[in-house]
Amino acid sequence: MRLVKAAEMRELDQEATRRYGIPSLLLMENAGLSVVSAVLSRFWENEPRGKVALIVAGPGNNGGDGLVVGRHLFNRGARVEILLTAPPESYKGDAAINLKIVAEMGIPYQVFCREKITELREALGRSDLIIDALFGTGFKGIPQEPIASLIRMINESKKPVLSVDLPSGLEADTGRVGGECIRARLTVTLGLPKLGLYLEPGARYAGEVATGDISFPPELRSENEGTYFLIDQAMVARSLPPRQPHYHKGNYGHVVVIGGARGYTGAAALASNAALRSGAGLVTAAVPASLYPILAAKLTEAMTRPVPETAGGGFARSAYASLEELLGRATVLAIGPGLGQEAETGVFLQKLLQKVEPPVVFDADALNLLARDREFLTDPVFRERRKRWVLTPHPGEMARLLSLDVSAVQADRIGNAAWASQEWGTVVVLKGARTVIALPAGNVYLNPTGNPGLATGGTGDVLTGLIAGFIAQGMEPGEAARAGVFIHGLAADRLAAEKGMPGMVAGDLLDEIPLVLKDLAHLVERR
């Protein structure tokens, strides 16, 4: 699903008027009607008579949308009260036209001020629904008094709130909440959904999000345009490789997992099993020689390969020579789960990256080693190979790769992931709440699945194996990253619904992933 920033939405509004001749007043009317439809279907069971709606309308276009909502609810028999947050003469353009209509119809309104707190409390108390139309996509910063107190009172009323386009107090582009912000039960975002509704903390304030049609022509809503997208089931289902009756295991690729230093055998095992659960035909785990018996016991379906190790139990620099023949048969490499960060292991990784041609999924210690030796991310010699790489950092690893503080990474997750992807020419998966997948061409994808149950050791290793397994089956690195992240999170959501989040462990995901894949395959069949 395509997402937009505030400036892009303004351009689309202007294009609708300039190119297609749709008056802005009609766009506002359609916006209001979309909200009215949501009110009737989601809150009032299509019976507005006897219901009371409080419309809180600011002086901009968002407030104008709210005034349209009030008019139509009034016409349908609801009792409507309107609270303006500025003097009537402050309302301009289309908002002023709709305020005049409201006044001529005799719908009561008053202007909010500190002196009318008692009246506001009474209005909140008798309302069945509050329509939040205070701020639109142009809002940035912190709501000032007395509006901050108004927002706080609305939230404290515990009454259901429908926000028009965005919860007031939330920034459209970033999802940032700097002060008081409406906590909506439902947000009807207009035209196209706004990016900030799907970023944290904005997603927590938006509640359920529905897109309201404002009569944009299909060309303006095209999924083939835009930069930002929300991953959904249909997108992932379409990209999954089919299982052909005449295929054998060789047709589904060979994943080589490189990791599992002393004390971290579980990481390599989880990644290997996840690659198998994705549908990969063959998986080999390359591990330090002394750990070979442990991994051979852990991995029934995957193959294992012992390699020379350091005194500390990591990969020795000579490990590459012992793996050269295996790497020549690999479809994709997954490097990093439990790899270790010894200096000699870093030399091994350098040798490997200088030689190998297949796609590579980097995780954990492989990312930390890359952060120490950035030539592989910047040297033009490796530009073509980097197109086949997927980096999967969590915020701490991303901070090391970018030489930033974790707080700086988190303050602009999309911007940092997009910059890194385009600068290095590789797919970047910035993990965390609302994982960001950035592609070198500039497209950015947000993942809506997943929950805090994933905040446990090993879940990142499962994701690494999933992505590598999908690449092994023929998916492009960006496609595989989107599918892997979405399925990984959806498996966690299903487990949370069935068993709860506390106590969820990474291994639980391995049993749920095939069931998710089954349901996605059925989705394609039904279509």
Write structural notes for this entry:
The chain is an alpha/beta fold. The protein has helices at residues 6-20, 24-43, 61-75, 93-105, 117-126, 147-156, 202-206, 218-221, 233-239, 265-278, 292-298, 319-329, 343-355, 365-372, 375-378, 383-386, 395-402, 406-411, 413-424, 459-472, 477-499, 506-526, and strands spanning 2-3, 52-57, 79-84, 109-111, 129-133, 161-164, 186-190, 208-212, 228-230, 254-258, 282-288, 303-307, 332-335, 360-362, 389-391, 427-430, 436-438, 444-446. It has 2 domains: 2-223, Rossmann fold (3-Layer(aba) Sandwich); 233-526, UDP-N-acetylmuramoyl-L-alanine:D-glutamate ligase (3-Layer(aba) Sandwich). Strands 1-9-18-17-16-15-14-13-10-11-12 form an 11-stranded mixed sheet, sandwiched between helices. Helix 3 (61-75) runs parallel beside helix 4 (93-105), helix 9 packs across helix 22 (506-526) and helix 10 (265-278) packs parallel to helix 22 (506-526).
Keywords:
eleven-stranded mixed sheet; alpha/beta; seven-stranded parallel sheet; 46% helix; UDP-N-acetylmuramoyl-L-alanine:D-glutamate ligase; 14% strand; 2 domains; elongated; Rossmann fold; 527 residues; single chain
Kindly give the count of domains. Answer: 2
Proportion of β residues?
5-15%
CATH superfamily label of the largest domain = Ribokinase
Oligomer: single chain
Shape, per Cα inertia axes: elongated
Work out the number of β strands.
18
The helix content is 40-55%
CATH overall fold name of the largest domain: UDP-N-acetylmuramoyl-L-alanine:D-glutamate ligase
Q: By helix and strand content, what is the structural category?
A: alpha/beta
Largest sheet: 11 strands, mixed
User: What's the CATH first level of the largest domain?
Assistant: Alpha Beta
Q: Whole-number radius of gyration?
A: 27 Å
**What is the number of helices?**
22
Mean pLDDT: 95
Distance between the termini: 17 Å
CATH architectural designation of the largest domain: 3-Layer(aba) Sandwich
